[in-house]
Write a structure and sequence with these properties.
By secondary structure, the chain is of the alpha/beta class. It has 17 helices and 7 strands. The N terminus is likely disordered. This is HTH CENPB-type domain-containing protein.
């Protein structure tokens, strides 16, 4: 219903029906048509199901009866479902579609397939009303706030790495038979002393800038080491502050049993991790007769179940879960960026990606492709689809490609699942520790020698 001051957009989104036409449902229509086919008269079926006789006669002439009223949509339900499926696919591959991108995709989809539309040809975008009603018609998708995920994390979660992890986990479980209260998860997280996002406040209408007082515009990060077991029991956390020396005031009001330390950058290091292990040993009380298992993951008690760690479920993840890693791996092979190429040229890697918008302008419309000569060479199914009359949504908004970027030589090695208490790993860790201690001793010796070395006296 129109109210004074409403815009055309509000009227389209909040339209109130003014007539009782076609107030019957599709189920009523289906039952009425079944009754007619069963021998009932059209007039009687209309009275029984409250559907006009003329409507039943018209619906009987149609191949597929419809209940829709008013103007037809720009896209058919099948075409809208194709858009929905592609949006979900891109989101699962970590290439989510923004509202502006979706409006651009809808416009190109209509133009490339010569579908009659009332979109804005000047801006080459579908309208905001179409977007709002499209989301309303397709509740399978919704606007979400994504979390930044690095390419390395995406590619590391692949079938080979997960298979290696569960193979190690099976070995541990078959040897020690851990109970729920002896399987622990530890993880570190960062907490800023300044809120990243403040709550909304009331201010004068029309104010161009509204602020709120904080301890600093850029907060300092405090690391918290947390740990819990599959039964729901917690180990008191460890707080790591970014400072040179600790102060007793920083321990005021903290959790019971928590410990507090500091480092130059506020991150955990080797020495602090050993300190945390002593803290963990004090509360978990592991022994040779009653050992514990410490794993790393991002969720708490429910995370043990959803990751298949406890109870053990080696088939927890499917091929769909590994699709993003496989997609990025396939792109890497296509770009000739395998491990041999990286070794030959360590300055090159594949970390940047193009946006969805950059991939939506290379597909010609039907009218443009009708004038082109078909190729006589044999091609893939994808190439054959391009020559068809219909342009699919995958061709209009393809998956972005990776591009090369220069990086520094060296860098951390790729990590794999390991059993740190196994003999080979334990020997390697001891050797690495000896090397670090020897290197530190040499550096200390050079420093002492430089202090004892007599200084040159210059005569004037």
């Amino acid at each position: 219903m129109y109210r004074w001051g409403n815009t055309a957009h509000d009227m389209a989104r909040n339209y109130v029906r003014k007539t009782e036409r076609k107030s019957w449902s599709s189920d009523s229509l289906k039952k009425a048509l079944e009754a007619i086919n069963g021998g009932s008269s059209i007039r009687k079926a209309g009275r029984d199901f409250n559907i006009p006789e003329s409507t039943l006669r018209d619906q009987m002439k149609l191949a597929s009866p419809s209940v829709s009223l008013g103007r037809k949509g720009i896209f058919t339900p099948q075409q809208e479902q194709e858009i929905v499926n592609h949006v979900i696919k891109l989101a699962n591959l970590f290439y989510g579609v923004t509202p502006m991108s979706l409006r651009k995709i809808a416009f190109d989809f209509a133009v490339k397939n010569n579908i009659k539309h009332n979109f804005n040809n000047q801006k080459q975008l579908a309208g905001k009303d179409w977007l709002y009603l499209f989301i309303k018609r397709n509740p399978k998708i919704s606007l979400r706030q994504p979390e930044g995920t690095s390419i390395n994390r995406i590619t590391s979660f692949n079938a080979d790495e997960v298979k290696r992890f569960f193979s190690h986990l099976e070995q541990i479980y078959s040897k020690f038979h851990f109970a729920a209260n002896r399987v622990y998860n530890c993880d570190e997280t960062g907490i800023s002393n300044v809120p990243n996002k403040s709550g909304k406040i009331y201010a004068a209408r029309g104010s161009k800038q509204v602020g709120v007082a904080t301890s600093g515009e850029r907060g300092r990060n405090v690391t918290v080491m947390c740990c819990m077991n599959a039964a729901g029991g917690y180990i008191p956390p460890m707080f790591i502050y970014p400072r040179k020396r600790m102060s007793a005031s920083l321990e005021t009001g903290g959790p019971v049993g928590a410990i507090y330390h500091c480092s130059d950058n506020g991150w955990i290091n080797q020495d602090l991790f050993l300190t945390w292990l002593e803290h963990f040993k004090k509360h978990a009380k592991p022994s040779l007769d009653d050992p514990v298992l410490v794993a790393t993951m991002e969720k708490a008690e429910s995370g043990f179940r959803c990751t298949g760690i406890f109870p053990l479920n080696v088939d927890r993840f499917t091929a769909d879960d590994f699709a993003p890693a496989e997609q990025h791996r396939n792109i890497s092979i296509a770009c000739n960026l395998d491990e041999s190429d990286v070794q030959k040229n360590p300055q090159v890697t594949e970390v940047n990606v193009t946006s969805i918008e950059d991939t939506m302008t290379s597909v010609p419309s039907n009218s443009e492709r009708k004038d082109t000569q078909p190729s006589t060479s044999t091609g893939t199914n994808c190439e054959k689809n391009l020559s068809a009359a219909f342009v699919s949504i995958e061709n209009i908004a393809p998956i972005p490609k990776k591009v090369r970027r220069n990086i520094k030589k060296g860098g951390p090695k790729k990590q794999h699942s390991q059993i740190l208490t196994s003999t080979p790993i334990k020997v390697q860790l001891l050797e690495d520790q000896k090397k670090r201690e020897s290197k530190a001793a040499k550096a200390a010796g050079k420093k002492e020698a430089s202090k004892l070395k007599p200084k040159k006296v210059t005569q004037t």
